[in-house]
């Protein structure tokens, strides 16, 4: 009996050694971290960790999961994309598939709301309807949101981009519809295996004519995705999605192919950004936006006065100028709350010891929301009334933000504590990185 018990004990310890060793080596001041590891032992047994209402550090767990799945072995290169919709869809798609870097050769001009008056000049005097302008803005908003979590590098010429890829050791696989291209077949022929390079730059050409002659000549391999219909080509953003996903199927080792040092750098940037985005209350965010708009009006008015010595200042305009400095002080006081140096110090513990990541990025039903405007939602209310995404208000507001705010409050007290001898040294070391 004793022998059997000892054997069972040894087996249990072996299976759970990772958790046990983590707890034994954990400093006593990290008791909260100990409780978190204990409450998430399902990860050690290989069980899925799903999003749910009572899960702590939901945002950080999701970010950590995305970081673990990001790859640097594969980059996407897009040569002269000319369509706004394709541009934004490509960035959003490759980010969702786990690609860390996109190279854009001669990309389309990104025109945001404040540049609306320049649209006619930049689009060869083409007049656009309000609906077209709104759609254009939405595409660029989608693109901007995607670029928060991927690196997008622009190149003026194809020669510069190819030289950069070569310097970094990437092999060029160029998508091509010619009969010289090799099929990316998801049921490959065992006698003729398709070998994926250690580092691959997957190139897509422009919508109208495909990749340029220069990049085709430079290609290490030309590839195509076999189709089974009368259409012999796909939309640029669709082909980017399908071919990129095909590579992940052909070589699953591409998923998460990144060094631990690169992951830690990404964690430092992302966790800091996530905290910064959530430190302000709704009112503070609204005030910051209003103050920013007032500051911009003051700057525009001041420039007008400087350019025209005879300009007559209206009483209302003078009042704005008189309050300019107060706007500046109020804005600075809000911005001080999201100082990147202090925020990084606040989240450093999570950077060094990230929470257990989600193993599935799907939202819980109670966190699903409807990503459309009020008018569209009202228009479809009868059809959508029983659907999950329109039946709840999503995540409880402020729960994730309060984690970061509490952490910032703790760190601020520690920074002001004269007994914390490492505080200033740590602040100086981190500040030097900014």
Task: Spell out the blueprint of helices and strands.
Layout: H1 2-15, H2 17-25, H3 31-39, H4 58-69, E1 74-79, H5 84-97, E2 101-105, H6 119-122, H7 130-146, E3 151-155, H8 158-167, E4 171-175, E5 182-183, E6 200-204, H9 213-218, E7 221-224, H10 236-250, H11 260-279, H12 282-307, H13 315-322, H14 324-335, H15 340-352, H16 374-379, H17 381-384, H18 399-416, H19 423-431
Parallel strand pairs: 1-2, 1-6, 2-3, 4-6, 4-7, 5-7
Helix pairs in contact: 4-11, 5-7, 5-10, 11-15, 12-14, 15-18, 15-19
Write a structural description.
The chain is an alpha/beta fold. Among the domains are: 2-47, no CATH class; 71-257, Alpha/beta knot (3-Layer(aba) Sandwich), CATH 3.40.1280.10. It contains 19 helices and 7 strands. The longest helix is centred in the C-terminal third of the chain and has 26 residues, at 282-307. The radius of gyration is 27 Å and the shape is globular. The relative contact order is 0.11.
